[in-house]
Design a protein that fits this description.
The structure holds 2 protein chains of 2 kinds. Chain A is mainly alpha-helical. Chain A has helices at residues 7-47, 54-71, 80-102, 107-129, 154-176, 178-188, 190-195, 200-222, 233-247, 252-273, 278-292; strands at 144-147, 150-153. Chain A is globular, with a radius of gyration of 20 Å. In chain B, a hairpin with a 2-residue loop joins β9 (205-210) and β10. The chains are: A mainly alpha, B alpha/beta. The interface between A and B is medium-sized, with 19 and 27 residues.
């Protein structure tokens, strides 16, 4: 009976199902990528600094999550409660000690300094946690649930929901609080913002601190279903550049949509073509966007 | 009369390019003072130095007895000096209301006390446009918003840089009507203008700045009838 089922139809149905399954997985990953990108966009939008170390902040956050989870037995999903304030302080310190001094320097120097920070963080991670990958042993969000023919990992689903919720909270912060509005004002016109009584130094430090602290949440969520190794930061960094280029500046909704586009593209390439093709597809999008729409799909002028 | 702002022998410029040479001016409490002069004379440079956006080479700037020549802009603003720069310098991607809120950043109590309603009474068009992005306003509306934003914190001194620049004559009239209303409330105003006619008629006193130096000083009326001003500025 089973053997007599018409094969072509079933394999066609199988392809459709696989595509949809990959779209679901990609959408969930895309939401986490969007959260990472929000941090990058906050820093780039306000002080015009491309932070090449951004992905390595994600990597460091993942290790902190690993520590919090394995040393203190804190539930992985709850680790951002500890890692967020810690990375916020880390970001503020990084700003005052390193970034602030380069503000009036040439672009090349700013790139060199953040690339330097990137390799520094990677070396620290190698020293502290060794080169072998680390993963957490247990999280409450394990297992899967099934909707129709599709299987959804509980951990990824939770991560996506948390990511979108955090992005929403951040847009509320930027639009409805004095400090949030000060960040937007400084990114619109720095001199005019100082004329309003806004200290640019503190606003920059705040934006850098928050942009960094966001990676604590992303890192915590990623650890519920991924392992971490010292070299994986670059991948997140480049992914978030790509998503930011696609979205353009000053649009949180655009970041979510772009994150999902990149997540789906990556997932489809990996699932339907070749696992090694995922970066290729992502960078193709990156290059196409820079070529055809340098301000991004949703960015302001 | 009580001195509010005193600039003494200010030398200043951009980088190594000197613009102002030994400039001294004084603004008393409740006074409207105009600085007129041709393009490139250093009028904006003077205001930028007072506001803290630029720091001069030498000289003193005092605001109500306090030395402010080396303070950064945000600290000067917190002392009660509001500077409306040339072209308004609004926050284009923020709404009209948000721009006004930013104006009260260092004096948030005023928002609770309902200053926005007072502002909307004076500039009704801003109330209609409250939810629009500042970048969507017309030139005249932008200038109104810039002036209004400079007022929200209830400054002791407001400095206006070319409020009539690039506006059609009827809009210039309407801007100056609003400025007169502010003057009648006793606000101290330091005004930089190329529109000499309006500036001299509106102000109590004026300075003429040419090539980075003050060349004349006097009451608005006296300056308006002087031969030098008539010939070079009013085209009479």
């Amino acid at each position: 009976m089973i053997g007599s089922q018409p094969r072509p139809e079933s394999s066609q149905g199988g392809v459709v199902q696989a595509v949809i399954q990959n779209i679901i997985n990609g959408t969930m990953m895309g939401c986490i990528y969007a959260l990472i990108t929000l941090g990058l966009s906050l820093i780039f939008g306000v002080m015009n600094i491309v932070n090449f170390a951004h992905g390595d902040f994600v990597m460091i956050s993942m290790y902190f999550t690993f520590w919090a989870s394995s040393l203190w037995a804190i539930e992985t999903v709850a680790t951002p409660l500890i890692t967020f304030p810690f990375l916020f302080l880390f970001g503020i310190l990084t700003y005052y000690l390193i970034i602030h001094k380069t503000l009036r320097e040439k672009y090349v120097i700013q790139i060199a300094i953040t690339v330097g920070l990137m390799t520094f963080l990677r070396a620290v991670a190698q020293l502290l946690w060794k080169a072998s990958p680390r993963a957490i042993s247990y999280s409450i969000v394990q297992g899967t649930f099934v909707i129709g023919n599709y299987t959804i990992m509980m951990s990824r689903f939770t991560s996506a929901v948390v990511s979108v919720a955090v992005i929403y909270l951040f847009s509320l912060f930027l639009n409805h609080t004095w400090q949030g509005r000060a960040i937007r004002a400084a990114s619109d016109d720095l001199d005019a913002a100082s004329l309003m009584g806004i200290s640019y130094k503190w606003t920059y430090a705040l934006a850098f601190g928050l942009g960094t602290a966001i990676t604590a949440i992303a890192g915590g969520m990623l650890m519920t279903f991924q392992q971490v190794d010292p070299t994986m930061g670059l991948r997140f960094g480049l992914l978030s550049f790509c998503i930011l280029a696609l979205a353009g500046l000053g649009t949180t909704l655009g970041i979510i949509i772009s994150g999902v586009i990149v997540g789906i593209a990556e997932s489809l390439a990996m699932g339907m073509w070749d696992p090694r093709a995922s970066s290729l597809v992502v960078y193709m999008i990156f290059i196409l966007v820079l070529w055809l729409k340098p301000r991004g799909l949703f960015g302001r002028k | 009369m009580k001195e509010m702002l005193v600039v003494e022998n200010l030398n200043a410029g951009y980088g190594k390019v000197p613009i102002l040479k030994d400039v001294s001016i004084r603004v008393n409490e409740g006074e409207v003072v105009a600085i007129i002069g041709p393009n490139g004379a250093g009028k904006s440079t003077l205001l930028k130095n007072v506001s803290g956006l630029l720091n001069g080479y030498s000289g003193k700037i005092r605001f109500t007895e306090q030395n402010i020549e080396s303070l950064p802009a945000h600290k000067v603003t917190r002392l009660g000096i509001s500077y409306v720069p040339e072209g308004g310098r609004l926050f284009p991607n923020m709404t009209v209301r948000e721009n006004l809120l930013m104006g009260a950043f260092c004096n948030r109590e005023e928002i609770k006390k309902g200053i926005l309603n007072e502002i909307y009474e004076l500039f009704p068009v801003l109330k209609d446009r409250a939810r629009q992005f500042a970048r969507t306003l017309s030139g005249g509306e932008k200038q109104m918003l810039a002036i209004a934003r400079g007022m929200v914190s209830r400054p002791n001194l407001i400095m206006l840089d070319e409020p009539s620049l690039g506006l059609a004559p009827n809009l210039v009239d309407s801007i100056y009507e609003r400025l007169k209303a502010l003057k009648e409330r006793g606000l101290t105003i330091l005004l930089v203008e190329q529109n000499t006619n309006y500036a001299l008629e509106f102000s109590d006193r004026g300075y003429v700045l040419e090539n980075g130096s003050i060349v004349m000083e006097g009451s608005g009326k006296d300056l308006a009838v002087s031969e030098h001003i008539k010939r070079h500025y009013l085209g009479l």
